[in-house]
Write a structure and sequence with these properties.
Shape: globular
Radius of gyration: 20 Å
Number of strands: 13
Strand order of the largest sheet: 11-10-9-8-7-12-13
CATH class of the largest domain: Alpha Beta
CATH superfamily of the largest domain: ATP-grasp fold, B domain
CATH architecture of the largest domain: 2-Layer Sandwich
Largest sheet: 7 strands, antiparallel
Length: 325
């Protein structure tokens, strides 16, 4: 098969490429003046809190060397913390601390780290090592999410999360992202994490993908990826849909985690969500997006937009879905 034939085949199946995404979705639906609302995680968190969208508790925000004097108090939490660059991307610069241990702290991968090493890491964050464009940054210290055990059989350490793509306030596709040994316990597809398609109407998992290849079992646990019911599904759809209302961005990805005690928490928003979700769902974005782009959604409330997205999903995904375990 020639390259041209492959391209024609992908377009016929509704697969959207990076250039089309950038022109039709990012450039058209996301005004540059609003991008900072999601590029800076501290701003996103403030907006979410004001809108009563649950998110991990902010323990502290360090914006300069003066704020470093409180770092040790922020880190000395019994149940651990997460250290994040406010303007980071693709999970770079994030460290998850499980809690204090003798002479230091225990990382999520089990490794011991000293306070001076963590202090050096935070200074690197402030210098802009992990920020977009390399500009000076701030460091967020958040409570560590103690994730629910529903995904224990298909996860390698780390925190699984759910990404929901929202267009003009309408949820159109979703996937579960799972950490692996290759991704060092991070639910990041660029680093070798697993993406699992989700039925938008039920929240039940389908088959998955890793490194752009279709898989049906987790590479580390060898357990089946399909047929798992994601809890709090309706609540998560509502959180993602309301994220459109608080940011004004017409194309975004909402990343949500499930805490064992607090339930769904909004982790962050992304104004340029990647396209691997198409592989995870075995369907292109275009058939889901076209009806939304051709519809005035401004008069719909959040519940109506969710129902609209699910109606589109049902019309596109006609093959039988796996039963929930």
């Amino acid at each position: 098969m020639s390259i041209l034939d492959r391209i024609i085949g992908l377009r016929r199946n509704g697969v959207m490429g990076l250039n089309e995404r950038n022109v039709r979705l990012v450039a058209e639906l996301n005004p540059r003046r609003l991008m900072r609302l999601v590029n800076d995680k501290s701003v996103t968190k403030q907006l979410a809190q004001e809108a009563n969208i649950p998110c991990p508790e902010l323990i502290g925000l360090i914006r300069g060397s003066f704020g470093m004097r409180n770092l040790k108090d922020m880190l000395d939490r019994e149940h651990g913390v997460a250290i994040k660059p406010a303007n980071g991307s693709q999970g770079n610069g994030i460290l998850v601390i499980m809690g204090p241990m003798k002479g230091g702290y225990r990382l999520a991968n089990g490794r011991r780290i000293l306070f001076e090493d963590l202090r050096f890491h935070v200074m690197n964050i402030l210098s802009g090592m992990y920020s977009l464009g390399g500009l000076p940054d701030a460091a967020l210290i958040e409570e560590r999410v103690r994730f629910a055990g529903v995904f224990d059989q298909v996860s390698f350490k780390g925190v699984p999360d759910i990404r929901i793509i929202v267009v003009k306030g309408v949820p159109i596709l979703a996937m579960l992202r799972l950490p692996t040994a290759d991704s060092d316990g991070k639910a990041n597809l660029h680093k070798g994490g697993v993406g699992v398609g989700l039925d938008l109407t039920t929240g039940v998992t389908r088959d998955g993908m890793q490194y752009d290849a279709i898989i049906d079992t987790h590479p580390d646990t060898a357990n089946s990826l399909s047929g798992i019911q994601v809890p709090h599904w309706d609540e998560m759809l509502m959180m993602a849909t309301r994220a459109y209302e608080v940011t004004g961005l017409g194309y975004l990805g909402a990343d949500i985690v499930i805490d064992a005690e607090k339930g769904p928490l909004l982790l962050e928003l992304n104004a340029r969500p990647g396209l691997a979700i198409q592989i995870a769902n075995r369907h292109g974005l275009r058939p889901h997006i076209e009806p939304v782009l051709n519809t005035d959604t401004s008069q719909m409330d959040a519940a109506e937009r969710i129902a609209f997205g699910q109606e589109i999903y049902r019309s596109v995904h006609t093959e039988p879905q796996p039963e929930a375990a």
